[in-house]
Write a structure and sequence with these properties.
Helices cover about 30% and strands about 25% of the residues. It has seven helices and 14 strands. A hairpin with a 4-residue loop joins strand 6 and strand 7. The longest helix has 23 residues.
Amino acid sequence: MNNLPTILPFIQELTKQVGDRLLADFEQARVAIAKDDGSLVTKSDRWADAYIKASLEKEFPEYGVLTEESTQILPDREWAWVVDPLDGTTNFARGIPIWGISLGLLHRGTPVFGYVAIPPLRQNIYGWSDEHGSAAFLNDTPIHLPETSPDPDALGNYFFSACSRSLEKMGRSKFPFKLRMLGVASYNILTVAIGSTIGAVEATPKIWDIAAVWVILKAIGAIWVPLEASQNIFPLEMEKDYSSRSFPTLVVSHAELLPMAQEIAKPFIH
């Protein structure tokens, strides 16, 4: 990315500022209210959303911004940010220390840079992928997929990340892996990138959940499968409202796992 030297330091500092404030809020009493879709939102979500949006618009005035809590229509711009200011609000509101800040940068509707900060774990995962090259990092250390595939005779010793809605569709008995549910869509998927799991499935992620992680997974060569047969996620459509659109997603670390994972995910496929 030609503009990476400008973007990366700014995003690192921005997510640190927001993360520090959210950590301070996390240590205090938290009050959450239900949105129209049943999900929770806190004052911290709304503060982070407004602060990130204003900071991005000031630093990159020609770029558009789509965020979970305010602007959910993709602006008709060559460059646009997609932001989840607090992914894992329920965890945050209930005192579970796994939640994050997610920012994806789109070029003509397709992510080329993603940055996800997980302040309670002190993890910052980011990457980029375009015609100039690709790379991904955990706390500034390059990350790669394991060179060897998981042992097919010992899949019960590997972790697979899922969400509760995934289990509603697929049923626990169909999983040959050990399941982990973290309550943070972006981090569920990113566990594949950092080598903690061999796959992940998300039933109802929104665009702000996946824009940043999609490019990170692409950069390391993981396999990303949209679970709606007619759905190509990217490029996104300009001026489209993404507030209610979900993107059921399957990710695996190695091609050898794909047939088994797709069989498990059959209930998703329309």
